[in-house]
Amino acid sequence: MKTVGLVVEYNPFHNGHLYHAQKARESTGADVVIAVMSGHFLQRGEPALVNKWARTRMALQNGVDIVVELPYAFSVQKAEYFSNGAISILHGLFCESFCFGSENGHIAPFLQTLQQMKEKSHLLEPLIHQYMNKGFSFPKAQTLAREELFENKLPLDLSRPNNILGFHYIRANNTLQKPMKPLTITRQQADFHEETLGSQSIASATGIRKAIFEKQNGLSTIEQYVPAATLEVIAQYLNKYGKLHHWDLYWPLLQYRLLSSSAAELANIYDVAEGIEHRLKEASLRAQNFSEFMQSVKTKRYTWTRIQRMLVHILLHVSKEDMAAAIESVRYVRLLGMNGQGREYLNRIKKNMELPLITRAASYKEALALDVKAAEVYALGLPPHSSHSLLQSEFNEPPIILP
Amino acid sequence: MKTVGLVVEYNPFHNGHLYHAQKARESTGADVVIAVMSGHFLQRGEPALVNKWARTRMALQNGVDIVVELPYAFSVQKAEYFSNGAISILHGLFCESFCFGSENGHIAPFLQTLQQMKEKSHLLEPLIHQYMNKGFSFPKAQTLAREELFENKLPLDLSRPNNILGFHYIRANNTLQKPMKPLTITRQQADFHEETLGSQSIASATGIRKAIFEKQNGLSTIEQYVPAATLEVIAQYLNKYGKLHHWDLYWPLLQYRLLSSSAAELANIYDVAEGIEHRLKEASLRAQNFSEFMQSVKTKRYTWTRIQRMLVHILLHVSKEDMAAAIESVRYVRLLGMNGQGREYLNRIKKNMELPLITRAASYKEALALDVKAAEVYALGLPPHSSHSLLQSEFNEPPIILP
Hints:
The structure is a homodimer.
Chain A: E1 3-8, H1 15-28, E2 32-38, H2 52-60, E3 66-70, H3 72-75, H4 79-92, E4 97-102, H5 108-119, H6 121-133, H7 138-150, H8 161-174, E5 181-186, H9 205-214, H10 218-221, H11 228-241, H12 247-260, H13 263-267, H14 276-286, H15 290-297, H16 304-316, H17 320-329, E6 333-338, H18 340-349, E7 357-358, H19 369-380, H20 384-396, E8 400-401
Parallel strand pairs in A: 1-2, 1-4, 2-3, 4-5, 6-7, 6-8
Antiparallel strand pairs in A: 3-6
Helix pairs in contact in A: 2-11, 4-8, 5-8, 6-7, 19-20
């Protein structure tokens, strides 16, 4: 059976994702489409709109055959670690190829860029640090260093977010003993961070989330941009838990954590650096909500998403040592869901897999400690009566199985 | 000027407290009545109904001349430490006498009991430990050990809560170089923990709080048991902040703290011992509210109040080292409020005081760290818009001054 892998967040699953999965299957002739999907907290440092089980259901009802989890240790990380984790899981599931959406849409420029940057990597790193020492954020410093070094002659525009991710997938893939075949498709119409909804059928997940939270009748506003299953799953989730997740729900917990921890304790949290802990504590005393808080802590030095990732780690109380241990111990593939085709594939490859395929969390409590904590804190954003049922689900929820 | 000291919580100030303050003044002929009052968290391991400023106002409007704070390092402690802290502060303010309510009502039995227990202390301590090793709580083991050793012939009934506190006041007082003169009055009518309101004008604070939270028209139900100022202050507080404080408000934060901390981290919190941290974590996953949680963690080994104090320390994230440092650094007297008479007295004694008299927290940030944290976490129990104004008050609130 031929298999193609996707790296996804599905927050929520929309028509662009449907197109991506279909194109990946078509252009590789794959029998099985595997998605490695972030759990409850995402790369931009945000809680997912609905939990991973609900998002798995959306994917399985829209042509994805297997959904496995990208563990917290990789999912709330900068592009490089995020990509390493995702690619290694797809590789561990014996995908022959993987397919990502990008602004560029052709694979050659990615490979050429990787080659050129390898040749000049000894010059690039010091230059990036020089720019960071001038106060630029890491992505901005990267861009400036690349401009200086390559004079804008790189074949790939690395200022575009999906080109960046794709570049890191390919870099991670190239370090494997047997690299998978990389494919890319052009992202249709919507820009990655596009916040307004147009008249087409494809919109960015960011725009869709914004509409859900800010428009009256949010769900009907997004109808044209998402498959029916997405609407249905979101409506069921709302019905069951009363809320969709966003940072505002976690603000009371984050504020409490910031005020009740010492600056030294915060400095020991993963990704917290350079004294920003004082700024965070100070701001938490005055801010009335999450967006006020973000406005008062943002700085030229860090991107918005970097700060948000930092805050997720603080919310989950993940120390530098915790994260090092977690990255070290991520030696498993956790199954979130599959259909009949997916099941057949997993049955075939299971015995050859180097990593254990986890179907029930209860048997892997220690290895999964960080993901379990993420699920618990994720649940606590909801009102007590809702969080209670969600809290129990991490250990007891079996993978979702569709025919 | 003659001065008498009281050790109080005023949660809330009721007619029994009024009687206590009047009697203390009368029987000592004091010009000045000083109350050392617990801050935001109390000896039974509970948040105070209203904050310390509101409770100070109640006291000043009912015949107390000076209110100073019993710091967190002493207020959320077993009787022994609580009493040591309170007595040393009254002594630091040059009180000639102190007066407490007790079930016994006479001072001689306290002094005689202290004497007899001193004589047999070498036998008592090992016996208490023997009973604790059989699984009894500390207070129960104390009672059993005393019964065995003194065959119920002690002149004081040490199974009564106010006799116990009084006994510890007197023991602490007797260690001073110049002990104050101890006085006790019989507590009128209401038992310490009496939970029902009778037809008299005096009821226990416990009964009054229960009525406020559980009865419709709670405030009018308590009218006959509290001075007008208490009702007024509570009504204003409700009007300003929307809620009166109780454990339920802090359950989401406590649950979050328990679930997001490792067992090892919890074991490092002050007063947490003997593996109870595992029991706490386990219960926090299943409980839907604070009382469900308490029901599932209670054990023969620990009293209810001991567990609640433990939970306050967990909520405030006070480690064993933090508490040791705090007890060591409590070298100040913090003024919460005074009237004209009180002001005159403080002006006279100020220059002779060994401890600094703090009127503004901002100048003593480090020494007050634990009390400031207590005030901040106390505020976070309220909804965000209310907590915001309360959060600012700890540093900026000047002592309350009445004519």
